[in-house]
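task queued by scheduler; priority normal; single chain, no ligands, no partner chains; default sampling; output format set to structure tokens
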Amino acid sequence: MMNKYLLPGLLICYSLMAQAQDTGHHEPCLTDALMDRYVAEHGPWGEIHTAPGNPARGGGQVVIPVVVHVVWNQSYLNTPDGVINYVFNLLDQDFNMENTNGADVRAAFQPVRGNPDIRFCLATVDPSGAPTTGITHTYTTASWFNPSTQADAMKMPPLGVSAWDPTRYVNIWVCDINGTTFAGNAGYSYLPVGTIPGSWRDGIVIDALTGFAPDDRSFTHEMGHYLGLKHPFDGNACSPGDGFSDTPPTNSATFSCSNTSLIKCGTLTQYENFMDYAGCGAMFTLQQSAYMNSVLNGVRSSLLSAPPACSLVGISENEPDVLRVFPNPTTGQVTVTRPTGSLASLRVVDSVGRTVHAEQLSAATATINVGELASGYYSLIVEQASRTTSKPLMVIH
């Protein structure tokens, strides 16, 4: 029961990550470098095959089966299933315009917010027909995978695990792609071009630490690439950019959300876009959403060829008005709010399942002192009657 609520022991220095982003030199997504190498080896890829309109939904919503392969060398990099479920749920919300931070999109861009209307679910049946959670865990002798020389090494033995049929599943590998370099790499994905779709290397790679930072949208960003989207700043020039008229031209990545009047290429910068780097991603545009659906109708159509054997992920910490924790991250105190003031037990649990703080709650709002805890990631769990809810909690000093 406990493992359902655990978050990973990601002892990342949050301020260091923010500093790396603010320098403008930190490139959390390596897709551009990956595709440059692909072109050097295989030549220009031509156009991505698309088909107009939304995918045939057969009376329902598109549901895409996914498998997550955790490839680890150190135990703290063996990301728990509960953490995968939590971030996976954010991915599903983002692709259905259900993300709670959508309200933070500035007024200028609210009219062009698009809904891809694509559901993702963790596979419940593996390629052999056996039941599965949709998450695999594989030990590797590799201390880490250098994206410059081992971009695909985690996708095959002896260092990694082979993809499940990439024409039927989206494969995501979670592993260490930073090592001791602290480069801040969050992930990468091949675009669906050339010989990539359906090949052994087709899929997404997410760093086991950087890709799971608080409110990180690496899964969403890389899934955008998997479905054909480029960065809005593609080519680092005002034109042609990513090819969409509702993503304003920009000649560079944006690493901060602080300047709400930021102008690039003579127009307001849409830093809220999931495909930029600002750290406050909250939207796809109408044209981006339509394009991803056309890719699903085209080169990715095999994912829709059979009813998926998979399960949608839904976890209580994302239900509105159930449990709120702020500020988060915190340096000492957090305020916990609940819909009612009924008696409840509160626990803070560390990455290995130990309860490091506990108290009783009797009011709808309570102030909790966690200043004695070491910097790191925790789960804050509230149990009352037959309901248990949890929230990720980050403590920094």
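post-processing summary
- The CA atoms of residues 222 and 254 lie 17 Å apart.
- The two ends are 30 Å apart (CA to CA).
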